[in-house]
Amino acid sequence: MFCVRDVASLHQLSVFDSVPLVPDGPKFFHRKNVMDSRKLVHRSRIAIRWGDMDAIGHVNNTVYFRYMEQARIEWLETLGRPFEGTQGPVLINAECSFLRQLKYPGDIEVCCYLGAVGRSSFQTTYEIRRVDTAEVIVAEGSGKLVWIDFKLEKSVPLPDAIRLLLT
């Protein structure tokens, strides 16, 4: 949930075109969950480091992608280290909506969700929250991973063993 000061601010926030804003009391909105079929697959607790901040004094936007990456890699490791060998997942896109600032010190929790599973790919989404204010989502992100044959540099169908773990 986040507060908007006026309708113009709300219009600027509509960069989330595919995820509509829904009223939740006066001047407060939250993003409607359009991925009802997603499944929580991993939670990762990460310390905010002093070096994560930039000259403005908040966590730099690029670091949020690192937080999501850490949660994703920890989750993938629970699947049996699928990125070792001749095939594995490759991140082909990533996005993040920055809803609140993060500042040092503190700890965050990154929730990693599995979304749609395709022939050779699967979607992941993320929620980042400070541990001390767990009810507030500070960022939301997503990424699509495609199963690749590393030598051929082409996508291949998800192996049956991986597909079974994902479904």
Structural class label? alpha+beta
| Beta-strand residue percentage | 35-45%
Mean pLDDT over all positions: 83
The helicity comes to: 10-25%
Compute the number of helices.
3
Radius of gyration over C-alpha positions, nearest whole angstrom: 17 Å
Could you tell me the number of beta strands?
Answer: 9
Q: Specify the biggest β-sheet.
A: 6 strands, antiparallel
How far the N terminus sits from the C terminus, by CA atoms, comes to 31 Å
Low-confidence stretches: 1-35
Overall 3D geometry?
elongated
Q: Which H/E pattern describes the elements?
A: EHEEEHEEEEEH
Description:
- By secondary structure, the chain is α+β, with helices and mostly antiparallel strands.
- The protein has three helices and nine strands, in the order E-H-E-E-E-H-E-E-E-E-E-H.
- The strands form two sheets. Strands 4, 5, 6, 7, 8 and 9 form a six-stranded antiparallel beta sheet that branches.
- A hairpin with a 4-residue loop joins strand 8 and strand 9 (154-155).
- The protein is elongated and about 45 Å long.
- The two termini are 31 Å apart.
- Mean pLDDT is 83; it is low at 1-35.
Secondary structure: elements and pairs:
Layout: E1 2-3, H1 7-13, E2 21-23, E3 28-31, E4 39-47, H2 61-78, E5 87-98, E6 107-117, E7 121-130, E8 137-149, E9 154-155, H3 160-166
Antiparallel strand pairs: 1-3, 2-3, 4-6, 5-8, 6-7, 7-8, 8-9
